[in-house]
Amino acid sequence: MTIAVNGRVDTVTAPELEAGLKFGDATCVVLDLANVPYMSSAGLRLLLTAHKTMLAKGGELQIANVQSAVKEVFDITGFSDIFNLA
Amino acid sequence: MTARRSLDLKIALSVLVAFVLSLAFSWFVHYRLAERDVYALIDRTFMNVESEIIDCVNERLVIQCMAVRELLDEGYPDDTASLQALARSRNITEISVADSNGDIIRSSDPEYLAGPGKPAFNFKTAGGRAEDMMCLVDGQETEFCQPFRSNTANGAWRKFVGVWKPSGGFVEIGCDGPSLRALSRASIVDLFRNWRVGGTGGIVVTTASGLILTDYDEPNREGSQWIEPDNTFFWKRKDVESFPTYVMIPKKSAAVQRDVLVGATATLNGLALVFVAILVGIVISSFVRQQIHAQAAKDLKMAKDIQLSALPNVFPPFPEVQNFSIWAAMDTAKEVGGDFYDFYFTGRDRVLFLVADVSGKGVPAAMFMMRAKTLIKSAAQTGKSIVQVFDEVNDALCEGNTSNTFVTVWAGELNINTGHVIYVNAGHNFPIVKHGGKCEFLKSRPSLVLGAMEGCKYRVGELQMEPGDAIYLYTDGITEQTNAAGELYGDARLLNLVSGSKEREGKLLESVLADVRRHAADAEQADDCTQLVLRYRGAPNVFTREYAPTTEGIAAAVDDLAAALETVPDADKARLMVAADEIFANIMRYSGATSWSLTVERAHCPDGVRLIISDDGKPFDPLDVRDPDTTLRAEERDVGGLGIFIVKKTMSPVIYKRQNGKNILTMGKDYGN
Question: Do residues B429 and B574 share a domain?
């Protein structure tokens, strides 16, 4: 299952994203971040929660196509290791 | 007298005393040694003398004894009276004849003969050493001599000599002192006539009453009365076979030997002591010199520390201010020089910056430097104009200035919003100004240096800086640095380097210094090298607005911020948007603020952004928050603290202040060049 996210993810837009992160029974979900120019810790919080939920169900959450600004934030916070971004 | 002189004198005196003491000691020791040697010689001589005298005397008496025996054999009457007469005639004291049993059968002394109720004197049983004579009977000896000694029979001193009689028994004669001497004297005299002892000493033999029989010395005193020698002689006396015998050696000869030895020892001692003294002198003076150097080095270090610690050394010094950037550096020479730089705000939008060079070196220059720096700053920060500052400080420095120390100063005051600079050049090098991309020296008619003459008038110059312009100040330590060939670094080379440089401030200063060092090559850095560069960026574009601590408030702020950052490159823009969002979120969630504000300052030349976010909530310093552990696995991760962490990692500077009941956070990025 692939979900594309459009636009920035910050305090204002996080609730919107949260609503969109409904995976149903899917065990492997890929979030495509190609259209996300930047993401603040509000976004990271959502991703981590979703990831933990998936792990508990025996599935996993994958992240794809991160832009450089988002990648930088992932690197600083150690999220690159959590989501196996190279 | 200088300390060195006095020290030398002390060393010389000690050497002299040591020498004299060692001389005395050695003289004493050698005297004793010489004395001991002489007495040893005397004792050895006596051993010889004794045996010679004894042999001589024995020989004389044996001859007499044999003569007596011959006479008796030829029929001379052997009755007592005849023997007495015979004895007298031969200068013998007694004559006895013994048989083979040892009994005396004839004698000049009737006491020895057998008489009514009295046996004859028997050699075997008489006791004392009489028994020794019996060797003549056994035929062991044909003649036997006993030493001159006290006779057991009657206590008189006698010498007995016996010769055997082939027919049995022996003839014995006895002599007392006088007869002994009478019989032997001629032989004794012959014996000692030329006997020298130790080269200059000799032997004297006298009679019992002290008449000299033999004398070795000149003039010859034979026959005169013996007088004990005075203390110009080493001597000893022994009575040998009744002859008082003296072995004597003049002290002079021993003295000579001793004196030679002492002289040799003294010379060696003297040489050794002088050598040691010189060595000690060298060691002490080098030690003292070392101490002086160490002290001087300590003083130097202290002066240097004074110098360096007084100058502002945090760069950049005003990170939240974007109107200008400033950098300065001082590289000290080995000797303390007295250069300094300084900069500070003299008003809300005025900053004073200067470079100065104190004349002279060492601790006095360092102290003058401290004074000048402090005076200028105090005067400048009371709102006085730059000319007033110079007039005041000059008068203050002239006061009590007996060493005629002065200081050259180039000081400018910049209005950070307009770019207008007012400056005074008090005898200092012309700075380099970069204007519109071109560099040239800012030439002005210099006023007099500070501290030289009271009541001096200071001229003011003006300069207008545009965003992107820069001004570079320096001291003559840079331009006047010589290389081994004596060539100066020079103004031209400095201008060339500064013009061509595209580096940021700190790097530029390093490059200049490196180039100066390259020029100097092996020559030493002669003077302090001080530099200051100020780059004017102009007043930033400012946008400010207040918001409510709600999601709507944040949304509005985010839109405004995006607009204000429109021309910022995407990467930095993204960072700024994320950092701002983190702070906005914290304010909304945790601060309890009733309102908050965002200020955006856009600066140029080089480009930079400052976000100043202020809220009236409870005191909160984001820099106090602990960093999260980013190495934990997903299951262990927490979302708390991430926002602030991101801000700290992406923004530079990040400055927090609490002022007037408000949290004020300034953060930003410089991204232009």
Answer: no
CATH of the domain at B130: 3.30.450.20
Domain boundary among B511, B536, B561: B536
One domain for residues B217 and B145: no
Report the residue of B578, B582, B587 to disrupt the A interface, i.e. the one with the largest count of A CBs within 10 Å.
B578
Strands A60-64 and A28-35: parallel
Distance, in Å, from the CA atom of A66 to the CA atom of A82, rounded to the nearest integer, reads 14
Residue identified by tokens 């300034």 is B666
- Structural domain boundaries enclosing B54: 3-179
Same domain flag for B13 and B88: yes
State the Cα–Cα distance between residues B424 and B410, nearest whole angstrom. 6
Give the H/E segment covering residue B310.
Answer: none
In this structure, are residues B540 and B601 in contact, taking their beta carbons and an 8 Å threshold?
yes
DSSP string of B138-188, one letter each residue: HTS-SEEE--SEE-TTTS-EEEEEEEE-TTSSEEEEEE-HHHHHHHHHHHH
Residues B86 and B40 occupy one common structural domain: yes
**DSSP per-residue letters across B510-542:** HHHHHHHHHHHTTSPP-S-EEEEEEEE--PPEE
pLDDT digits (tens, 9 = 90+) for B627-645: 888 777 776 777 677 889 9
- One domain, residues B519 and B591: no
Interface check A31 vs B, CB under 8 A: no
Per-residue pLDDT tens for B366-392?
A: 889 999 999 999 999 998 999 999 999
The verdict on whether omega for the bond into residue B653 sits within 30 degrees of 0, i.e. cis, is yes
* Distance from the B539 Cα atom to the nearest Cα atom in chain A, whole angstroms: 29
Mean pLDDT of residues grouped by 10 in chain B (673 residues)? 77 84 84 85 90 91 93 90 92 91 90 88 84 84 90 80 90 90 86 82 86 78 83 88 88 75 81 86 89 88 80 90 92 80 93 94 84 94 92 93 91 94 95 91 92 91 93 93 87 91 87 90 85 91 89 92 90 94 91 91 85 92 82 72 90 92 92 70
Q: What is the count of structural domains for chain B? A: 4
Distance CA B69, CA B141 (A): 15
Q: What is the CATH number of the domain that holds B391?
A: 3.60.40.10
Tokens of B163: 């010769």
Average pLDDT of A36-54? 90
B620, B622, B628, B634: CA torsion to nearest 10: 80
Q: B558: distance to nearest CA of chain A, Å? A: 9
Q: Which domains does chain A have, with CATH numbers?
A: 2-82 (3.30.750.24)
Cis peptide before B219 (omega within 30 of 0): yes
Which residues are CB-neighbours of B296 under 8 A, at least 6 positions away? none
Write the CA distances from B279 to B13, B15, B269, B273, B274, integer angstroms.
15, 12, 15, 10, 9
B147 contacts B54 by C-beta, under 8 angstroms: yes
Length reported for chain B: 673
| A17 and chain B in contact, CB less than 8 A | no
Chain B residues lying within 8 Å of A40, measured CB to CB? 577-578, 581-582, 585, 643, 646
Whether residues B140 and B243 fall in one domain: no
Tokens 């602030």 sit at which residue? B644
Residue that is last in its domain, among B252, B270, B296: B252
State the complex-level ipTM.
0.94
Q: For residue B559, which amino acid is it?
A: D
Q: Is A62's Cβ below 8 Å from some Cβ in B? A: no
B554 contacts in chain A (CB < 8 Å): 11-12
Q: Is A55 on the interface with B (CB under 8 A)?
A: yes
Domain shared by B478 and B383, yes or no: yes
Distance CA(B107)–CA(B97), nearest Å, equals: 6
My answer on whether B360 and B443 are in the same domain is: yes
Query: Residue B541: phi, psi to the nearest 5?
Result: -70, 135
